[in-house]
Structures are given as C-alpha cells and as structure tokens.
Write a structure and sequence with these properties.
It is a single chain. By secondary structure, the chain is mainly β. It contains one helix and eleven strands; from the N terminus they run H-E-E-E-E-E-E-E-E-E-E-E. The termini are far apart. 23% of the residues are buried.
C-alpha cells in the first residue's frame, strides 16, 4: 500500500535518525599515530573510522586521554603493542582479530607485507587531535 502524501512530505522535510556512509576512497585525515583515517558514522555515544597503515610502516606510539577504542582488523597483517598499569602485550594482527584499547593504554602498531586495515569504534566520540599524546613505544618509527 503506498504511503500517504503527508507522510512522504514529512519524511522529506525531517532528518532521518539513521546514518549510512560508504567507505571514502581517500583518507579524511592522518591520525596522531600516523595512520590514514577514513571517517565513518558516529553517534552521541561513539564514532567509527577505518584505519590503514602502509606495508612495513610503524605507527607513532600514543596514549588516549579520555576515549577507549575497539578494533576489528579487516585486511593485512601486522602486530599491536599495548601497555597499561604495568601489563603489556604484543599480538599478531590478521583479518578477523578484534581487540580493545582501554583509556590510558599506550599502544603502537606496525604493518607487515601488506597494508594493515582495521575498523575501530571510539567511545565516547573522538574529540579531536589533542586526544592522543605521544609516548615511548616498542618499535622505532622511520623519519
């Protein structure tokens, strides 16, 4: 059954409560850690982005002041170092791996032979470039 014309007008005039966004072809910004970032959808509770790091590249080690992140690796291979409260680990990254980066965790990642790609959710939403500060990492970055 077709929708009433008044309903169609209302839908046209009001903003939808839903967000949909395709992965952009080009990065929107470079993250404080040096990875390429393509912004995805966000809400009042969190924001989502796609991160990529070139083959053989090493990110700058950083720590977040107020946000936590959840990552899901979608492509490539590499490693992630995390350190917080006297505990540290290094994990191998491959498609299908998910991980958490709690607030106050120092972390650094590096790509293997192929570009490392991940989708991450930041909670609360990413507040801006001052959120991350540089820390001593496990691996030496080039440049």
């Amino acid at each position: 059954m077709p929708l009433h014309p008044a309903v169609l007008r209302w839908r046209h005039l009001h903003v939808s409560p839903f967000q949909t966004k395709a992965l952009p072809d080009l990065p929107d910004v470079t993250a404080p850690d040096g990875s390429d970032v393509r912004l995805l959808v966000s809400s009042g509770s969190g924001s989502m982005a796609h991160f990529s790091l070139a083959p053989g590249a090493i990110s700058t080690a950083v720590c977040h002041r107020t946000v936590e992140e959840l990552w899901f690796v979608t492509a490539g291979d590499g490693q992630m170092w995390r350190s917080a409260e006297g505990v540290e680990d290094i994990i191998d990254l491959a498609p299908g791996i998910s991980l958490s980066i709690p607030v106050g965790t120092s972390f650094q990642f590096r790509a293997g032979r192929t570009p490392l790609e991940a989708v991450a959710v930041t909670m609360p939403p990413w507040p801006g470039m001052d959120e991350a500060y540089v820390v001593d990492g496990l691996w030496t970055t080039q440049g």
